[in-house]
TrEMBL record:
Protein name per UniProt: HEAT repeat domain-containing protein
Species name: Pedobacter albus
Domain of life: Bacteria
Length: 186
């Protein structure tokens, strides 16, 4: 299977089983992860969403296959404008920035300029058009990165204070969880 054939498949409705199957095909090097990342920017929103869904599955299930494309993913993160894709991108980056992330991921992140990621995360957090599911991942990202840069913690607390009355109950619950995480880490 090549990128063109994958794109044809992604243009059709697929379920979780097919996503897992396609994740394994990508992970077995039939399609480079970098090309899958490129498909998450396809003009067809359905193709890009399904590609992002597969990308998340590759990260979660076949990290060793995702690793060679990690820097490319981090570089492309800020330019993802499709809200459906942002949900998967946000989840992947939240997993990458966790305390218990694999050492290989931590090493790549240590070599990457985090400013662009932090700036993008804050932009997504304050954007009224961004759904709470994405904001939930963004809160995790920023809380996780606050251990690396102190100023993020203060800015995140101020931003959460500002947004908590403007957002949904689900957002409020997530903010409560993040406050506990930040308090425990300070």
């Amino acid at each position: 299977m090549d990128k063109i054939e994958l794109k044809t498949i992604l243009a059709q409705t697929i379920g979780k089983e097919k996503v897992v199957y396609l994740s394994n095909i990508v992970a077995n090097h039939h399609i480079p992860v970098k090309e899958l990342i490129d498909l998450t920017f396809d003009r067809d929103d359905k193709v890009s969403f399904r590609a992002a869904w597969i990308l998340e599955n590759v990260y979660v299930g076949r990290l060793e296959d995702f690793l060679p494309a990690t820097s490319y993913f981090l570089t492309r993160f800020a330019s993802q404008n499709n809200l459906s894709c942002r949900r998967h991108y946000g989840k992947i980056l939240a997993l990458m920035t966790k305390k218990n992330a694999p050492k290989a991921i931590k090493d790549i992140l240590a070599q990457h300029n985090l400013d662009s990621l932090v700036e993008t995360a804050f932009a997504w957090l304050i954007d009224e058009e961004v759904p709470v599911a994405i904001k939930s991942h963004v809160l995790n990202i920023l809380a996780n990165l606050s251990a690396k840069q102190d100023w993020i913690r203060d800015e995140l607390l101020q931003t959460m204070d500002y947004l908590v009355d403007k957002e949904s109950i689900a957002f409020f619950a997530k903010v409560k969880q993040i406050r506990k995480q930040l308090k425990a880490s300070s």
